[in-house]
Amino acid sequence: GAVVSQHPSWVICKSGTSVKIECRSLDFQATTMFWYRQFPKQSLMLMATSNEGSKATYEQGVEKDKFLINHASLTLSTLTVTSAHPEDSSFYICSARDPGGTFSYEQYFGPGTRLTVT
Amino acid sequence: QKEVEQDPGPLSVPEGAIVSLNCTYSNSAFQYFMWYRQYSRKGPELLMYTYSSGNKEDGRFTAQVDKSSKYISLFIRDSQPSDSATYLCAMSPLGAQKLVFGQGTRLTINP
Fold first, then answer.
1. Which tens digits make up the pLDDT trace of A19-40?
2. A24, A95, B18, B108: which has the highest count of C-beta atoms within 10 A?
3. Hey, are the CB atoms on B45 and A4 less than 8 Å from each other?
4. Which has the closest alpha carbon to A79: A1, A11, A3?
5. Between chains, do A105 and B34 touch, taking CB under 8 Å as contact?
């Protein structure tokens, strides 16, 4: 099946610094990737939809300048949390759609990145 | 009102029980209905999907969609401790890129 990886799996950073999270589709080309945020015991909150070669579409209430998304290739999307603050601490998960898959609406999820800002 | 409502639980049942998980929704444009399973500190994985109304069975799992009531269900028969996870329903209109997720129900199967 389609595999999506994320790196790093866990990161601790100091307040005010920036952190970059990578999301890769390993065995398929993903024209569309998604970034979610998940708080403990809560559902997935879609942050943005990322299409290869174009600007990301952010959901209402998500700060574009704080959460920078770059989908530079068909297998890689990055999320950069700029000037991180403790309230940005969360579980960030990416997903990707495989346009050549059996069910095109399926999103394949990465294992997630736990960000802790101290 | 949220587009998709799902009881967060937690739900705890003994091994071997039949589990029923449900979601309601308000958007009549939803055509694809999915159930994802998420283990702790992992990304969700797709369990089953259905298109429009009807039932779909896959081993111990059965998904049901009742569009007239805007209600979907996932049944797990002969539940196992390994089924302990959070189950999220997700939905999409035809042609849409993104999915709308329910809050997720935390399920624990006790040996």
1. 999 999 999 999 899 999 998 8
2. A95
3. no
4. A11
5. yes
